[in-house]
């Protein structure tokens, strides 16, 4: 009997992700498909994939493994991650999306969900899926079901677009010029269909589907990756710019001046609009988002709820509280009307509706939602995450007027500023976010904390 393979390097907290074929390949994808059906006890599943060269082969192998265990498989082909969530919700089937989001071309992965787009993470089935795949990699594939499932193809892009458009009132939209940078990712597949009938002059950038990312990394949160978009917005005299990540589940916004709009400001704007539809609703925000988010939620009659960073925590809290909307500093936006799943496209449509429903500029529109000075997320490589965090806690914890909490890393709050310092789960990094009532205070606190974090031992 072969030794059991250790898949701990590719089975992460929320998904499967690794280098192909070095860390995983089609035979292993087939075992993941069989394990997914076994753990979810699904009689039918839906599968989609992104534009990476390895995605068709991996997803096909996963489908064969699932069908061998008796599940009927619906293949929806090329899609964004939120299009897969739509299919899982609309068809009421567990789903698997083959993507590594913004990771380099040699990576691929699987984002899995139960019927209705409910997340599959370490505590909700992913650990069991890993164990089965590890065991079968040593002993051979599991015994096939007495009845092999069918594998059929289905087109969902049109229905996906129609569903999103039904959730936002765009009837009062004035003509807008919009530059969209798809980063050679799945936004190039979804945007033309979603925007087709809107009074929008679309200026496309890097819409060619190419999983080798020839123009720039498909991660719009890195400022280096939106430079082209910023320049094009100014050159075109556009009303705004939108940048999607590789699997197009995140959307980053640039205003008419070519300046990035904080995802916290977008969270606050969309929260206000969702509260107009659902008065008194609950809105989830992670603890890295700006003070402005809970303030705006309260001002519009809603109930803000603070949670840890990470989509599984957000989705769990949304399900528990019945929240109408949730937002993260990383430009993930979650909607109750979209099975509590994240969709950057729906957030983008809200921004278009808000901007196009009045005559002002985007920078003027978001100014009321962008109230404080923020550092953005700053990563520091450290030798001992715990020791560095303890040193920072010691320095601030005894000061008057300071509160600390440990919901996710260390959060330190004063009257005029706050910061959060949290460890990466996968790298020897500490991530720092600072916010203050003015730029000078933010810079002072940021530099003080970074000096402690980066002190040589």
Automatic annotation (TrEMBL):
<dbReference type="Pfam" id="PF02879">
    <property type="entry name" value="PGM_PMM_II"/>
</dbReference>
<dbReference type="GO" id="GO:0005975">
    <property type="term" value="P:carbohydrate metabolic process"/>
</dbReference>
<dbReference type="InterPro" id="IPR005845">
    <property type="entry name" value="A-D-PHexomutase_a/b/a-II"/>
</dbReference>
<dbReference type="Pfam" id="PF00408">
    <property type="entry name" value="PGM_PMM_IV"/>
</dbReference>
<keyword id="KW-0597">Phosphoprotein</keyword>
<dbReference type="GO" id="GO:0046872">
    <property type="term" value="F:metal ion binding"/>
</dbReference>
<keyword id="KW-0479">Metal-binding</keyword>
<keyword id="KW-0460">Magnesium</keyword>
<dbReference type="InterPro" id="IPR005846">
    <property type="entry name" value="A-D-PHexomutase_a/b/a-III"/>
</dbReference>
<dbReference type="InterPro" id="IPR005841">
    <property type="entry name" value="Alpha-D-phosphohexomutase_SF"/>
</dbReference>
<dbReference type="InterPro" id="IPR005843">
    <property type="entry name" value="A-D-PHexomutase_C"/>
</dbReference>
<dbReference type="GO" id="GO:0016868">
    <property type="term" value="F:intramolecular phosphotransferase activity"/>
</dbReference>
<comment type="similarity">
    <text>Belongs to the phosphohexose mutase family.</text>
</comment>
<dbReference type="InterPro" id="IPR036900">
    <property type="entry name" value="A-D-PHexomutase_C_sf"/>
</dbReference>
<feature type="domain" description="Alpha-D-phosphohexomutase alpha/beta/alpha">
    <location>
        <begin position="159"/>
        <end position="258"/>
    </location>
</feature>
<dbReference type="InterPro" id="IPR005844">
    <property type="entry name" value="A-D-PHexomutase_a/b/a-I"/>
</dbReference>
<dbReference type="Pfam" id="PF02878">
    <property type="entry name" value="PGM_PMM_I"/>
</dbReference>
<feature type="domain" description="Alpha-D-phosphohexomutase C-terminal">
    <location>
        <begin position="377"/>
        <end position="450"/>
    </location>
</feature>
<protein>
    <submittedName>
        <fullName>Phosphomannomutase/phosphoglucomutase</fullName>
    </submittedName>
</protein>
<dbReference type="InterPro" id="IPR016055">
    <property type="entry name" value="A-D-PHexomutase_a/b/a-I/II/III"/>
</dbReference>
<keyword id="KW-0413">Isomerase</keyword>
<feature type="domain" description="Alpha-D-phosphohexomutase alpha/beta/alpha">
    <location>
        <begin position="9"/>
        <end position="135"/>
    </location>
</feature>
<dbReference type="Pfam" id="PF02880">
    <property type="entry name" value="PGM_PMM_III"/>
</dbReference>
<feature type="domain" description="Alpha-D-phosphohexomutase alpha/beta/alpha">
    <location>
        <begin position="266"/>
        <end position="372"/>
    </location>
</feature>
């Amino acid at each position: 009997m072969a030794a059991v393979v250790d898949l701990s390097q590719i089975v992460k907290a929320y998904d499967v992700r690794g280098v192909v074929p070095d860390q995983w390949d089609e035979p292993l994808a087939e075992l993941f498909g069989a394990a997914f059906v076994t753990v979810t006890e699904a009689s039918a599943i839906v599968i989609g994939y992104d534009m990476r060269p390895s995605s068709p082969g991996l997803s096909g192998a996963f489908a064969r493994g699932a069908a061998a265990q008796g599940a009927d498989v619906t293949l929806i082909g090329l899609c964004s991650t939120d299009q897969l969530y739509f299919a899982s919700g609309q068809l009421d089937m567990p789903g698997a999306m083959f993507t590594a989001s913004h990771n380099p071309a040699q990576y691929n992965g699987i984002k899995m969900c139960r019927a209705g787009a409910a997340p599959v993470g370490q505590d909700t089935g992913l650990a069991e899926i890993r164990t089965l795949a590890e065991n079968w990699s040593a002993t051979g594939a599991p015994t096939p079901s007495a009845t092999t499932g069918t594998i059929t193809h289905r087109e969902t892009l049109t229905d996906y677009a129609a569903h999103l458009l039904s959730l936002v009132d765009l009837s009062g939209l004035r003509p807008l010029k919009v530059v969209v940078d798809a980063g050679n990712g799945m936004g190039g597949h979804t945007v033309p269909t979603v925007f087709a009938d809107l009074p929008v002059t679309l200026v496309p950038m890097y819409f060619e589907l190419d999983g080798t990312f020839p123009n720039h990394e498909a991660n719009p949160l890195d400022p280096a990756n939106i430079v082209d978009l910023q320049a094009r917005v100014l050159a075109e005299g556009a009303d705004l710019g939108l940048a999607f990540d590789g699997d197009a589940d995140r959307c980053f916004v640039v205003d008419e001046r070519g300046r990035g709009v904080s995802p916290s400001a977008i969270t606050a704007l969309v929260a206000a609009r969702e509260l107009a539809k659902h008065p008194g609703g609950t809105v989830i925000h992670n603890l890295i988002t700006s003070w402005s988010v809970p303030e705006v939620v309260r001002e519009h009659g809603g109930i803000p709820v603070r949670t840890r960073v990470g989509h599984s925590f957000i989705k769990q809290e949304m399900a528990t509280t019945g929240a109408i909307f949730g937002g993260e500093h990383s430009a993930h936006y979650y909607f109750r009307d979209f099975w509590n799943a994240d969709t950057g496209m729906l957030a983008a449509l809200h921004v278009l509706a808000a901007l196009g429903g009045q005559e002002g500029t985007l920078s003027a529109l978001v100014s009321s939602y962008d109230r404080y000075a923020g550092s953005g997320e700053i990563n520091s490589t450290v030798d001992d995450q715990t020791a560095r965090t303890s040193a920072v806690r010691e320095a601030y914890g005894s000061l008057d007027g300071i509160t600390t909490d440990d919901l996710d890393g260390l959060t330190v709050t004063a009257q005029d500023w706050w910061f959060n310092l949290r460890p990466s789960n996968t790298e020897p990094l500490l991530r720092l976010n600072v916010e203050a009532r003015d730029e000078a205070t933010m810079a002072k606190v940021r530099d003080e904390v970074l000096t402690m974090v980066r002190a040589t031992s």
